[in-house]
Amino acid sequence: MTLQRDWDAWRAKRLADVVLPKGNLALIETRWQQGDREISPEEALAGLPGSVTATKTEQKDFNREVIARGIRLWDANSPAIQSFETIDVYPFDPNWIIEAIYTKHPESRPVAFEHIKDNGGTRDLVVPGEITLKLDGIDFVLSAFDDGDKLLLVFADTTNGIETYSSGRFLFVYPTAGTDRIILNFNHAFVPPCGFSIHYNCPLPPPQNRLHIPIRAGERYPVFRDGYKVS
What we know:
By secondary structure, the protein is mostly beta strands.
């Protein structure tokens, strides 16, 4: 029952996090700097209600050099938060806790990821190693990119657009020093931020991360009241 309790706690935290004042449902705008003139948070907040706050954001390239700066606006009373009901999920299934092999590259490699708002353009992201696993008798070699103390796996499967969020889902993966074994707990697969606000620009699954089988585990899609749609 420990695995089930862990999943229950993960799910409760996800439901709490998305409605925070700077949670996924609160993002109402991202303004990118034009030319050399930097936008200040105070300037961005002018004329907006008190429920709105501003934070600075950056885009970095493969070499971690800043290539763009901007401001994100968050509304603690956004229409999305007011209309949010839940995140639909598959029931917890221990069979979707998969052991895989993690092979670290001698040097981090750039892998091109298309982003949802980049009109087909790609950005090179840091991929420190390869994840090799077998699902439904099929061998896969997946690319998960560096996300601080963990890896972020952006994957697609045959449920997308039918049973789950259309653009794919995310899964955090945690390599362990001193071993080539790694665990992929697909029960923790989650809807990416762009499933909650159009003002995110999420990476899309690269070809090697498109699984030609259904992954019926983890989050499916956000549910809203009164006909609200993320648009």
